[in-house]
Amino acid sequence: MNLKLFSLISGDDIPATKLQIKISGSLNAFTDDDVSFKSFSSLKEMFPSLGKALADSELIVIAVDPKVYVRTKALLTKALSLESEENPTVKKALGRAAEIPESQKLLQAQMPKGAVPFLTRDGVNSGFVISKGHQQIMYLPLDDARIDTVLRNGVIPYLTSGETIAVREEAPTPKSASVKPPIPVKKPEMPAPEKAAEILPVLPENVGEITAKTVNILRESGSKVAVNGNQNSEYVKSFGSVSPDFFEFFTFTPHVEDKGDFNVTDYTAQMAKSAKELASSDFGACISDICNTDGCSYICIAVAGENSAIVRKLYREPDEKDESFIKDAAEELIELIGEKASGENSVGIEISGESAAEPEYEKTHGKGKKVIVSILIIILALAVAAGTFFLVKYQRDKKAAEALANPAPETTTEETTVPPEISKDTVPLSVFMYNETVNGIDKDDLARAAEDAANAV
Questions:
Q1: Among 3, 44, 346, 401, which lies 20 to 30 A Cα-Cα from 129?
Q2: How many CB atoms are located within 10 Å of the residue 10 CB?
Q3: What is the homologous superfamily of the domain 3-168 according to CATH?
Q4: Measured between alpha carbons, how far is 11 from 41 in angstroms, rounded to an integer?
Q5: Would you list the DSSP string of 129-175?
Q6: Among 3.40.190.10, 3.30.1360.70, 3.30.300.10, 3.90.950.20, what is the CATH number of 215-367?
Q7: What local confidence, expressed as pLDDT, does residue 259 receive?
C-alpha cells in the first residue's frame, strides 16, 4: 500500500514526536513504505505536498494538533471539494459530554459526507477516513488523551477488515455467543462520493483526439499541468479515461474557495496560478463555476504559465444544459493547455505578472504600474530639486536686502595734534635777529645762541 503521512503542528506544547511514533507503529504492519511523518506548521504550507500525494498515493494520513483540529477539518473538507454533514455516530458520542457547549458539539460532529468515523471516548476530536477518487484520506488527532482509542478501535480494525469497533458495537451480541477475532481480509474499496459519481459526463466523440493531442504536446515539451480541483474539474479529470498517459502529465490540486474582491476573470486566473505553484508544475489551469449576469451565463477557463495567464470567457448557447456547457468548457480548457504548452498565440485575455493576483478594483497591469511609479518618482525628484533651488535663492536675496537696509556704520580715525617740543635753549628775539644780521646764516643756531649767552654773562 502506497502511503504518505503528514502532520500539522501549531505549537511546541504537545508531545508530537511520541504521538507520531504511535501512529507510525500502528500503520507499519500494513505497508512496506516509509511510515515517517512530514510535518508542517500550516495547512497552506502542506497543500503542495498534499496535492502530489493525491496523485500517486493510495492512503494519505493527516494528523493534526488539537488546537486547530476542528478548524483544519472544515478547511480540508472544503479544499477537497467534499460535502460536509453532521455525523450521527459522532453526535451520539458527544451527547455523553455534558461539559461541552452545544455550539462546539455541532462543530465537532461535522464530517465529510460518507466518512467512516474513528470515535474517541467522548466524541471530541474524533478521526475519520474518506475516499477521494482512488485515494483514501485519514484524519487523526494528535491528542495524547484520545489517540490510543482512535488507533485501537478505529484505524487498525478498519485497515484489517474495513470496519471499526464502534460500528460493530451498534449490533448487540448475545452473551452466550463467542466472539471470534476478525480474519484479515482484503479491504473493499470504498465507493467514491455520490456527488463525484453524479457529475461524470458522457464524453463527446472528439474529446479523445483533443486530449491525446494535448498529452503528446506535454510529453514532447516535458511539461506538466496542475488543475485547480474545484467541482467542475471532475469533467477535466474524466478525460483521463480516453488517454492512458493522462495522469502522468495532469495533477489535480486542492481547492480553497476565497473569492474576496476578485472578479470572475481575475479569480480564475489566480486559481490557475495557485494550482501551478502548489504542485510546482510548468502550467496551472482552472475552470470556473457557471456565472449568471445580465441575462447571460458564462464560464471562464484559464491557463497560467511562468509569466502570464490566458483567460477565455465562454458563453452558454440558448437552451444549453449545464452538463453540456461545462463539458464543452472543459474540452476547450484541454485544448487551451495544448496551445499554451506548444507556445502558440492563444486567443483570450492575457493577464501578465502580478496582475492575476489583484482585486477587480485594481485594473492596471503590472508593467503599467511600474511605469507609473517610475514617473511619480521622477516628478517627486524634480519637485525636490526645484524647491531646494528656490529656497537657496530666497535665502540669498533675503540676505542682500538686509545688507542694503542696514548698512555698516563708517569708522573715522580722530586726528591728534602733537605740539612740537619746545627747546630749552632759547634766546630773546632781539638777540636772535642781531646775531643773524651780524653773523649770517652759516652758523648753527644753537651754537650761536650758546655763544651769545656766554658773552652776556
A1: 44
A2: 17
A3: MoaB/Mog-like domain (3.40.980.10)
A4: 8
A5: EEEETTEEEEEEE--TTTHHHHIIIIIHHHHHHS--HHHHTTS---T
A6: 3.90.950.20
A7: 65
